[in-house]
Amino acid sequence: METAVVIGEDKRRNDEKLIALDDTAHQISTDPWYQAGFVLTTGINSSYVLGYSGSIMVPLGWIGGVVGLLLAAAMSLYANILVARLHEVGGRRKIRYRDLAGYIYGKKMYRLTWALQYVNLFMINTGYIILAGQALKLMACILSLTFLKAIYVLFRDDGALKLPYCIAIAGFVCALFAFGIPHLSALRVWLGFSTLFSLVYIVIAFALSLKDGLKSEARDYSIPTSHWDKVFSIVGAVANLVFAYNTGMLPEIQATVKEPAIKNMEKALWFQFTVGGLPLYAVTFLGYWAYGSSTSSYLLNSVQGPVWVKVVANVASFLQTVIALHIFASPMYEYLDTKHGRGGSPYELHNVLFRIFVRGGYLTVNTLVAALLPFLGDFMSLTGALSTFPLTFVLANHMYLMVKNRKLSMPRKAWHWLNVVGFSLLAILAAIAAMKLISVDSKTYHLFADI
């Protein structure tokens, strides 16, 4: 590996303005730190947050769940700050995760990092489409929605809107949004809508869970399943812990931030892990308190309340998911636009048509996988194991070692190596557990299951 990265630019970093890479079709260095903060907060408070009561708290219980979430937050903040501080090396900003890894290790690691990141983002986006489909199905179950029925009867005449069809509709809506928003920086006002939608379904889920919890009798908080299933579930929940906080695309988000990029990104990260994390804790802990070990993997399936309130919550969840998916698909969009797109305004007809065909094809594959295997919790576990652990913890600590090696004391070097080895082992265990859970669910539910 090409590891000659302990480079002399460190001593002049404060004296020179580093040059940003210009080989991208998307905008860079244009956004204030708080816009990046809202992008990050949109990620952690997306509709995935409605699943953490069931996917994290149920397998881990009160002590394991609470301590695990807080510890994972602290470790994730630390690891992300390490990556943020490596944004400017070699005299240039590294606007992609794979650019940073390739500069430090060489071409082979460039390709491997891109593969890991692609898997991470593909799985996250698949999960978003599953979530959007679940919200759509629940809306249809709660309230007879004429336009959904009209679409559905074109395919079936049994009068029931099933999850695979809801997932197909959700994928189509996500594609329409992707056609109109050319790059991450263009989200701007949509981030405000995303925050509003998040608050709507989180507040409603919180309020209805509180009401149900106050009315219900004693709940069962025991960790379910047999011994070995319990072990696999616990390891899978640990993967979900890191999945909850991390994007796997920090350099791509940091690339949009104005100079000084490192200082501004650290502000955004502190915002994400303080104010931004409060809604996640509120709905996760209260949801588990209200329903115990019977908590659904999608909290809005568990709550009881007025029809119109539940419909509003699911509409908000659906719309927020459409926006959040665009964030996690943006590295793939940037790659495709830069490599195969044409110049000019992103709103010119030829660029719009390019997005329709290319992004439409990408999201079609996402949607097909989501409909085939709609096991949301398992996807979260597998994503955490295969991508989030390596990208956020293993690679972050090792890259920091490679770049800062001469400046680190022996105890700090030992600390980073401990993180590299420990998280590598944890990633392997989590991947085994996730595959086991998917195997079990695949036997329980058939392909295109209506769950």
From TrEMBL:
<feature type="transmembrane region" description="Helical">
    <location>
        <begin position="311"/>
        <end position="336"/>
    </location>
</feature>
<keyword id="KW-0029">Amino-acid transport</keyword>
<feature type="transmembrane region" description="Helical">
    <location>
        <begin position="112"/>
        <end position="130"/>
    </location>
</feature>
<feature type="transmembrane region" description="Helical">
    <location>
        <begin position="415"/>
        <end position="438"/>
    </location>
</feature>
<dbReference type="GO" id="GO:0006865">
    <property type="term" value="P:amino acid transport"/>
</dbReference>
<keyword id="KW-0813">Transport</keyword>
<dbReference type="Pfam" id="PF01490">
    <property type="entry name" value="Aa_trans"/>
</dbReference>
<feature type="transmembrane region" description="Helical">
    <location>
        <begin position="187"/>
        <end position="210"/>
    </location>
</feature>
<feature type="transmembrane region" description="Helical">
    <location>
        <begin position="136"/>
        <end position="155"/>
    </location>
</feature>
<feature type="transmembrane region" description="Helical">
    <location>
        <begin position="382"/>
        <end position="403"/>
    </location>
</feature>
<feature type="transmembrane region" description="Helical">
    <location>
        <begin position="162"/>
        <end position="181"/>
    </location>
</feature>
<protein>
    <submittedName>
        <fullName>Proline transporter 2</fullName>
    </submittedName>
</protein>
<feature type="transmembrane region" description="Helical">
    <location>
        <begin position="268"/>
        <end position="291"/>
    </location>
</feature>
<dbReference type="GO" id="GO:0016020">
    <property type="term" value="C:membrane"/>
</dbReference>
<keyword id="KW-0472">Membrane</keyword>
<keyword id="KW-1133">Transmembrane helix</keyword>
<feature type="transmembrane region" description="Helical">
    <location>
        <begin position="60"/>
        <end position="84"/>
    </location>
</feature>
<feature type="domain" description="Amino acid transporter transmembrane">
    <location>
        <begin position="32"/>
        <end position="435"/>
    </location>
</feature>
<keyword id="KW-0812">Transmembrane</keyword>
<dbReference type="InterPro" id="IPR013057">
    <property type="entry name" value="AA_transpt_TM"/>
</dbReference>
